[in-house]
Design goal:
Elements (H helix, E strand, L loop, with lengths): L2 H10 L3 H6 L1 H17 L9 H13 L9 H26 L22 H17 L1 H12 L4 H8 L3 H19 L8
């Protein structure tokens, strides 16, 4: 059992300081995930990778019912927290320009395309991902790990406790479902 996993278990057992001792052990990995997420964002984005890591860390540190199994699972959970931070910021920016009416984009390629610098597109992806999560939670988790966290197939399989082949299949299905949802095919979000 690795040191990160031991500290996560200590936190679950009530040791609040254990979570703080994780910082030096996972900081570089969290920055790598943050850089991948921010790479697709607008150049006007005021949040840098360190800021995103810190905001996500605060979100995780304040979570009362955070249960994390091991190091890879923690990275997947941290990536989800980063996604939530970015979505909250996108919502804030759109409050100012509500009703702009830009068309949604589709997911192309491995990492997804569309206009990833557009906060409206990011919100469209988030809404579609939430709808997918209600229907197929595992597909949504695989998509979050691959698209938002930038984890590879092996890393995603480890983080979610799935086989490599299951991750590959789920990744293809999730992208197809989300592409259909973003392109507005009838019934995709129902």
């Amino acid at each position: 059992m690795g040191q990160v996993t031991q500290l996560l278990m200590a936190r679950d057992a009530g040791d609040r300081e254990a979570f703080d001792r994780l910082v030096p052990l996972v900081y570089d990995e969290l920055r790598r995930i943050a850089r991948r997420q921010l790479r697709r964002r607008s150049p006007q984005q005021t949040l840098d990778s360190s800021g995103l890591v810190h905001e996500a860390w605060l979100k995780l540190a304040g979570a009362q019912r955070l249960r994390v199994n091991d190091h890879p699972h923690f990275l997947a959970v941290a990536a989800t927290a980063m996604r939530q931070v970015l979505i909250d910021r996108a919502r804030g920016r759109l409050r100012v320009k509500r009703g702009a009416g830009a068309a949604t984009a589709s997911l192309d390629g491995v990492g997804g395309a569309g206009d990833a610098t557009d906060p409206e597109w990011l919100l469209d992806v988030d809404r579609a991902l939430d709808a997918l999560g209600r229907r197929e939670p595992r597909l949504a988790r695989v998509f979050e790990c691959r698209f938002f966290a930038g984890l590879g197939e092996d890393e995603t399989a480890t983080a979610l406790g799935l086989s490599l082949r299951s991750v590959q299949r789920d990744w293809m299905r999730a992208r197809a479902w989300l592409r259909a949802a973003l392109e507005g095919e009838a019934g995709a979000l129902s």
